[in-house]
Specification:
Elements (H helix, E strand, L loop, with lengths): L1 H15 L11 E7 L6 H14 L6 H11 L1 E2 L11 H13 L3 H17 L10 H17 L3 H14 L7 H4 L1 H15 L4 E7 L5 E4 L2 E5 L2 E6 L2 E9 L2 E2 L2 E6 L4 E6 L1 H6 E3 L4 E5 L2 H18 L5 E9 L2 E9 L5 E8 L6 H11 L9 E5 L6 E3 L9 H5 L8 H22 L20 H24 L6 E9 L2 E9 L1
Helix pairs in contact: 1-15, 2-12, 4-5, 4-6, 5-6, 6-7, 7-9, 14-15
Length: 489
């Protein structure tokens, strides 16, 4: 009986896969350029972007850039950056604390600490860490003397994560301040410790954690106080983006820095998208990076728009990219003359599933009337083999599902046949007290066989031959995109 139950459960599991679940994000638009974004391009592309927005595709910093910064990473140095006289301003705030002008100290020191965290890339100059530590200690103690113990505790926690060896000397800050700091240390450590593992595409990259230079990649840190950490890498004079990482008690959190991707991603108040140094780099990585961006914020679909050369002429281009970085649709509108809005709106319609209208030059046009399946790219880029495998290349699944269907039908029929019968023949003159009770398992197994038979018929008719895979599906529609996640057998 246990074998029958296991077979029935297995068949039900096969029948259950393929049911989609809604994803968290919506479809997005990213701009893409070789070099700097051209001046005046916003006016030209506004009909395209407006039509995409009408169809549910969100773009720009407020709708997309902020989300990426909150979930993934931000630029290593945010404007306006650290003031040139940073150390002198810290001394000014520190003197205000010494003089008992705690409100003035908070007013001076709080923006300086915030600016340091927003411009973590500046701390490749490690000499700046000393005034930062000084600012944080005086800021925490000023909050405490003002009676804001919650604010003081937050600054102390950040101090302990950024300067784990720091100490508040009774001789320098007073016995009460020293006791407060040690209480904060004890309370922070009662939550336990976590770990942080940092990988980078280049093992020569120097890794910084909370503005502190650790070592070249890879880096593993243990016994860290739980909370938020800022992580970035430096290779030569180039800095990666700042990755915000949450370290949890009794866990080791992994962060992987993709230097090429970090250099390409732009999240500024002016625009959000990808910028490439050369046309060759853009051609090679644009789709892959767009997919990484979309996966990073759980977007089910991504459209890339920008300016490029098409047949030797400048044009506004657009491409619909799936979650592995493969282009599903690509078209352009020439810029030899100022393109009228109707052609750009037609480009938007084509990218989201409609037919191309006049003036839209189509390069790639896959049929989007049925859901498009694509392996979720996850945190790292898919390899070429993931993107180029032709559909239907392996046709053996029809035989496997067909065989399983026959087994399900045969076993289901057998279970229904023996239901209510006696497992053994009772001796003459006696009754049977133990009967087969296989109705439920029989119908379940029989239903599974019918489902597998239907799947086999579908594979025979449509030639589907993909191996087992987890898949995200994206179906662009006139109103945006419908997406989900499924496992396929």
């Amino acid at each position: 009986m246990q074998a029958f139950r296991l077979l029935a459960i297995t068949v039900l599991s096969v029948m259950a896969v393929g049911v989609p679940t809604a994803t968290a994000g919506g479809p997005i638009v990213l701009e893409s350029y070789t070099g700097a974004k051209p001046d005046g391009i916003d006016r030209l592309m506004s009909p395209l972007l407006d039509e995409l927005a009408n169809r549910g595709y969100l773009g720009g910093y407020e709708a997309v850039g902020r989300t990426f910064e909150a979930r993934q990473s931000r630029a290593s140095n945010l404007e306006p950056g650290l003031p040139a006289d940073y150390a002198a301003q810290v001394d000014l705030g520190h003197r205000a604390w010494i003089a008992g002008r705690f409100a003035d100290a908070i007013k001076i020191l709080s923006p300086l600490v915030i600016a340091a965290q927003a411009s973590a890339g500046t701390f490749t100059n490690q000499a700046l860490r000393e005034p930062l530590q000084k600012a944080m200690i005086a800021l925490a103690l000023s909050h405490q003397r003002q009676g804001d113990l919650s604010a003081a505790a937050k600054v102390f926690d950040e101090l302990l994560r950024s300067f784990p060896d720091s100490a508040v000397s009774p001789a320098s800050y007073g016995p009460e301040a020293a006791r407060s700091f040690e209480r904060a240390r004890t309370q922070a450590e009662t939550a336990g410790h976590g770990g942080l593992q940092v990988r980078a595409g280049n093992d020569a990259a120097a890794i910084f954690i909370n503005e502190r230079l650790e070592a070249v990649a890879p880096v593993v840190k243990q016994n860290l106080i739980p909370g938020q950490y800022r992580v970035f890498g430096q290779l030569g004079k180039q800095l990666s983006r700042i990755h915000h990482v949450t370290v949890k008690p009794s866990e080791t959190t992994l962060v992987t820095i993709n230097a090429g991707f970090d250099l390409a991603v732009q999240t500024t108040t002016r625009w959000t998208g990808l910028r490439f140094a050369t046309a060759a780099e853009r051609e090679q990585s644009e789709g892959q990076y767009a997919a990484l961006f979309a996966n990073g914020i759980d977007a089910p679909a991504v459209v890339i728009v920008g300016v490029d050369q098409v047949a030797g002429h400048p044009a506004i281009i657009g491409a619909l990219v799936d979650l592995t970085g493969r282009e599903l649709r690509r078209a352009s509108v020439t810029l030899d003359a100022d393109p009228p809005g109707d052609r750009l709106r037609s480009l938007a319609a084509f990218l989201t599933g409609d037919k191309a209208g006049p003036g839209v030059d189509v390069e790639i046009s896959n049929d989007l009337t049925a859901p498009v399946t694509a392996r979720a790219a996850g945190p790292s880029a898919p390899g070429p083999a993931d993107q180029s495998r032709p559909p239907g290349a392996w046709r053996g699944w029809r035989f496997i599902t067909g065989g399983a269907a026959l087994v399900g039908l045969g076993v289901g029929g057998y279970l229904l046949k023996i239901d209510g019968s006696c497992p053994t023949t009772p001796p003459p003159g006696t009754r049977c007290f133990d009967f087969y009770n296989t109705t439920g398992a029989g119908w379940l197994t029989l239903g599974g066989g019918v489902a597998l038979a239907g799947l086999t018929a579908y594979l025979v008719l449509h030639g589907d031959g993909h191996p087992p895979a987890r898949a995200a599906f994206v179906a662009p529609t006139a109103g945006g995109a419908m997406a989900g996640f499924a496992a396929r057998f």
